[in-house]
Design goal:
This protein is mainly alpha-helical and 84 residues long. The protein has two domains: 47 residues, no CATH class; 37 residues. Helix 1 packs antiparallel against helix 2. The protein starts with a helix and ends with a helix.
């Protein structure tokens, strides 16, 4: 869905440039294939949405906190296991 939005935004910007340059007819011909080409290119880029990035950031933060807790517990257990 986000890639579709990106494709649409790029398409609109290119369209505006063509019309500003007085090339509306050329734009109509180009537009027939532009969306398919842009969708294919962006799909190959392996992009993620902002929402997915934010979700993964939250999961990473939670994992980091859990890891720190486990490391602390391990240090405590190692300290207790050492002979005096």
């Amino acid at each position: 869905m986000a890639i579709d939005n990106l494709v649409q935004a790029v398409r609109e910007q290119v369209e505006a440039r063509f019309y500003q340059a007085g090339q509306g007819g050329a734009w109509q011909e180009l537009d027939r294939n532009l969306q398919a080409v842009l969708s294919e290119v962006f799909a190959k880029l392996d992009l993620v949405t902002r929402e997915e990035f934010d979700r993964q950031s939250v999961l990473l933060s939670e994992a980091r906190v859990k890891l720190q807790s486990l490391e602390s517990q391990l240090r405590d257990l190692e300290a207790r296991a050492k002979p005096v």
